[in-house]
Write a structure and sequence with these properties.
16% strand, alpha/beta, six-stranded mixed beta sheet, Rossmann fold
Length: 201
């Protein structure tokens, strides 16, 4: 990717100095984590409280049947696999609830945050912390065969509360409507692209 002019040596160096926070280690989280680790970011922090289950394996690309059988925490399983992919990246795995108290210092240390959650309560907390800390973040969601994403740059673009003036209630989820893996890959590809664009200037 150094041969790609918009990245180049300068952009690659910027990536190596960057710190990305991913909230959620499910489908979007694992896809973005793998892509960004392969791109050569310097530090990655992953937050997730859940454990790997067999139903995850259809779309959560960092995990194996062994992880599901052993009921390994997603963040821990992701860290182990990502370190095998690129040992030069510093990876922090937090097996905790992604609440405001935990996330605030993480937002302060991150250059950009990627949303890989599955609920709007956490997303609105992330939105508030983004505005408070002036940390950019990239909203993303997918279900069934569709998805959406949006990069939020504090003081430059609309925030999530500007778009969703009321908290969405109900709606389809992967547990109720299912999802096909290409929908995940499409949304994650856009999230990764926005992150790389931002981090390389």
């Amino acid at each position: 990717q150094i041969l790609f002019p918009p990245v180049g040596e300068k952009g690659q160096h910027a990536l190596a100095e960057s710190h990305v926070l991913i909230v959620g280690a499910g489908a979007l989280g694992t896809a973005s984590a793998e892509g960004l680790v392969r791109s050569g970011i310097g530090t990655l922090t992953i937050v997730d409280r859940d454990y790997v289950e067999f139903s995850n394996l259809q779309r959560q690309q960092l995990y194996t049947e062994h992880d599901a059988k052993a009921h390994v925490p997603k963040a821990a399983a992701a860290k182990k696999r990502l370190e095998q992919i690129n040992h030069e990246v510093t990876i922090h795995a937090l097996i905790e609830d992604a609440g405001a108290e935990l996330l605030r210092p993480l937002f302060q240390r991150a250059d950009i945050v990627i949303d890989a959650t599955d609920n709007f309560e956490t997303r609105m907390v992330m939105n508030d912390l983004s505005l408070e800390t002036k940390t950019p973040w990239i909203y993303g969601a997918c279900v069934s065969s569709q998805g959406m994403y949006m990069i939020i740059l504090p003081d430059k673009t609309p925030c999530l509360s500007c778009v969703f003036t009321a908290m969405p209630v109900g709606g389809l989820t992967c547990d109720t409507a299912g999802i096909i893996s290409p929908a995940v890959q499409m949304v994650s590809a856009y999230q990764q692209t926005e992150a790389l664009k931002y981090l390389t200037g």
